[in-house]
Design a protein that fits this description.
There is one protein chain. By secondary structure, this protein is an alpha/beta fold. The protein is built from 12 helices and 9 strands. The protein starts with a strand and ends in a 13-residue tail after the last helix.
Amino acid sequence: MSDRVSVEIDGPLAHVTMTREDRLNGLDLEMLRALIDAAAKVRADRSVRAVVLSGAGRSFSAGLDFASVGEKQGQMMLNFLRPPWRSTNLYQEACWAWRRLPVPVLAVIRGHCFGGALQLALGADFRFATPDAQFSVMEAKWGLVPDMSGTATLRELLPMDVAKRLAMTAEVFDGTKAHELGLVTEVGNDPHAAAVELAEQLATRSPDSVAATKRLFQRVWHVSPWQAFRWESAYQLRLLLGANHKIARKANAGKAVAEFAKRTFR
């Protein structure tokens, strides 16, 4: 894949790891592109049921590597441009690509999770962290705003006043506080094991049902009830006509373990 990001497929699980540990997995332009490529590789493999996203070494990621990115100011500015076929620029896509995947993504957070790294973690569906992991909406330290999809993901989890405070102050807080705020799903001393346990549980369910549930909740979370009901019905009808629903019914009737077909829901 890349010297920045590794992708290992282990049965139904994809382990995606940022491998720039000598720089605390700082996000340079190459790392951002490698994250997008890794998400595309996972999407193309329909045998994958869940993704575990982590950073090698002692940190998830210290965030955008300003020293490296600043050396390429021309490229940095050009990457704010958005391709006509996409709603995101390079910086946003590196985080939002994980939200678009039709499989659940579980982020494992140790050490630093600052700025762009926090926005990357928020692009996951679930976040598991150690109590002493360090979080910050760090952009204010540099006189900037969160611009790597963080405005879309923070609003899902935080009241506006809390999001504003974190984004305006660049306050650093630990994993326990992140869990209290609702930014982290679970806190524990072995977040990787906890993430894998949930990923393996999710992998036992119909991959079409899991993909549809992810897409449905993301689509209806901020719409009116009548729009939500319309999407519920549309997704349910599609699942009812699919092979994996029939497999689930047969397995449940016979009290057997379901052997699901590959995902068709994209």
